[in-house]
Write a structure and sequence with these properties.
By secondary structure, the protein is of the alpha+beta class. It contains 5 helices and 11 strands, in the order βββββαββαβββαβαα.
């Protein structure tokens, strides 16, 4: 069952090696913490300006761990991070780096058409798709060693962590996708309005929804297999002790 992230109090953004997945969440029930791994892209003037654009989280997408967050929660996480001081550390060591080395220049919700987030890829080189409504940040890297480490891949991702509250709940189908499909089929809503969606936008919406469905199926299948294997092992006859 997918898990909805209801709340997460983000205290640090960590510079870290990229994970295998694109946008990924790891929920650790032992200490009630969630770790978010976002995607990054260097600006075209990275060598001169040292700017890194990062999407921390995009709304209503199920990751490979089965976790997701709605638009409201994504915004609250961004605000919590600002309230907690916009601190940067290395690989979750919770030791804030000097703002003379790196700092958060911008902390915001990604708006439709923001060119800084167009063509962003996940850590497998696949197109992330439309990130509208996601949590974006711009990092300003001033330290030359940190810049060099980014170029060489020693760190090429960001990761956010903090206490989290989750609940078993599936994400909604994208409202814009439903509206666009109705419009394409000639079905009008109560206001008799059509939805203006381009072919590219429709493809992006369908891809995001399909990817979420694929990840959900993978999660459910993996869980079912684990339960089946565990049950089979329990049903195996055990050797009786011999006298």
């Amino acid at each position: 069952m997918p898990r909805r992230i209801i709340e997460a109090d983000i205290k640090f953004v960590s510079l870290c090696p990229a994970g295998m997945n694109g946008i990924q969440t790891l929920y650790k029930s032992a200490d009630k913490r969630a770790e978010f791994r976002g995607v990054t892209k260097a600006s075209t003037e990275f060598d001169e300006k040292g700017e890194i654009h990062a999407c921390v989280w995009a709304p209503n997408r199920i990751d490979r761990e089965g976790d997701w967050a709605d638009t409201s929660t994504v915004e609250k996480m961004a605000h919590a991070f600002a309230r907690n001081g916009l601190s940067i550390d290395m690989v979750h060591n919770e030791v804030a780096l000097s703002k003379d080395d790196v700092f958060v220049a911008e902390n915001f919700i990604i708006q439709k058409g923001d060119p800084r987030f167009e063509g962003m890829k996940d850590h497998e080189g696949k197109d992330i798709g439309d990130l509208t409504g996601g949590w974006g940040i711009v990092l300003k890297v001033l330290n030359e060693d940190l810049k060099k480490a980014y170029r060489e891949g020693a760190w090429n991702g960001v990761s956010m962590a903090g206490p989290a509250v989750v609940a078993d709940e599936a994400p909604p189908i994208d409202d814009r996708l439903v509206a666009a499909m109705k419009s394409a089929l000639g079905i009008r809503d109560t206001e008799n309005q059509e939805v203006d969606v381009t072919k590219e936008e429709m493809e992006a919406l369908l891809k995001a929804q399909t990817d979420s469905l694929k990840d959900l199926i993978k999660t459910e299948v993996a869980t079912a297999v684990e339960e089946k294997v565990g049950k089979s092992e329990e049903d195996q006859p055990k050797d009786e002790p011999k006298d």
